[in-house]
Amino acid sequence: FPGDMGITQTVNALVYAVKFAVTTKPEVRQKAERIVASCIERSEECEVGKIWVYVLAHYRFLSDPTFLESIKSPEVIETEISMFGMFQGDCDDVSGYLAALLMSCGFRVRFKVIAIPGQGEAFRHIFPQVYMRSRNAWVTLDACNRRQPFGWEAPNTRSREYAVN
Questions:
Q1: How far is 121 from 123, CA to CA, in rounded Å?
Q2: Which tops the pLDDT comparison, 118 or 54?
Q3: What are phi and psi for residue 40, nearest 5 degrees?
Q4: Quick one: average pLDDT of 76-84?
Q5: Which end of the chain has the least Cβ crowding within 10 Å, N or C?
């Protein structure tokens, strides 16, 4: 669906896919455990940072097919990384994978959709935010802006947040 209805439909499907992966797919938790294994216990900065670096190292942005909104589930992405060493997808795919890995480590996560300045009023981009107690803040993880560190967020955007857990 176009407009807000379409955004809500996409985000709801993404939330469902993430919750399903976290609650029923042990390979997602096992991958998260391997990624953060070298961190000092309860070091949020290290755990979030390691997950961030891992995902960026295995991700290549690729737009959805024309006229189709497609979502890859975290377990499909995990399979692609195991088979090919990487995965390809757009902002909702990488956002879901990041969210599943973070939630597997006990982090609270939400999705944020934004309207990109200069591209109209429609929401066109999504990324996860993780709540870090050490910062007492929601921290943005926008993997589509890979040149920016985790925590960076595009300024002056119209946005809406959606809870995942």
A1: 7
A2: 54
A3: -65, 140
A4: 96
A5: N
